[in-house]
Amino acid sequence: MPVFRLSNDSNKFPIPELARDDGLLAVGGDLNPERLLNAYSNGIFPWYNPDEMIKWWCPKDRFVIFPDKIHISNSMKKLLNKTALEVKINTDFDCIMRNCRMARENLTWITDEMERAYNKLFALGYALSVGIYENSDLVGGLYGVVIGKCFFGESMFSTIDNASKLALIKLSEKLAKDNFVFIDCQFHTDHLESMGGQYISWAEYKQLLNNCRD
């Protein structure tokens, strides 16, 4: 299966079903807001190393969390009842993204270009962040893209135990209250699976994606 080369002159993508078995669909293009929104609306997202062309992915099996089915362990339930940590929504988006980048040191895919692009999406109302604070210090959080009733998770970080888990739980509570359809996790991790992440087929994902825009 060929990998498509995108043009800077058009924000269009090939149909997602043409992605390779590993999920890679296309390379090239840029991260302008219209292209990014078009990508996420079709289940496509960018992920690439700093020294590479932009790579656009659309895995056939999708890993998602349904907000109303987030799994909260007994230890996290105890933490939720006792914690003095403060949760803030859509505060310090740029700082949360920068911390996600710094947490991965030289292994991050979050480049200067990506920081600028997602901060633009946030300014346009298409991104969301959750921050966890201890004594006014940012100690954990996450951010992602919002289109309709879908949340597309991008990254999370934690400098103390369980801060990123708390951010995900609070995000899920907010999204469930607002009738969001799913959290797209993009890739599987044991951490996300332990909190309710599950694989669904492309056919089911595509239908849910359509429901997000209803």
Summarize the structure.
By secondary structure, the chain is α+β, with helices and mostly antiparallel strands. The protein has helices at residues 33-41, 74-82, 93-103, 112-123, 163-177, 190-194, 202-212, and strands spanning 4-6, 24-28, 45-46, 55-57, 62-65, 86-89, 127-134, 137-147, 150-158, 182-184, 198-200. It is globular, with a radius of gyration of 17 Å.
Provide key terms for this protein.
214 residues, alpha+beta, 7-stranded mixed beta sheet, 7 helices, 34% helix
Helices and strands, with pairings:
Blueprint: E1 4-6, E2 24-28, H1 33-41, E3 45-46, E4 55-57, E5 62-65, H2 74-82, E6 86-89, H3 93-103, H4 112-123, E7 127-134, E8 137-147, E9 150-158, H5 163-177, E10 182-184, H6 190-194, E11 198-200, H7 202-212
Parallel strand pairs: 1-2, 9-10
Antiparallel strand pairs: 2-4, 3-4, 5-10, 5-11, 6-7, 7-8, 8-9
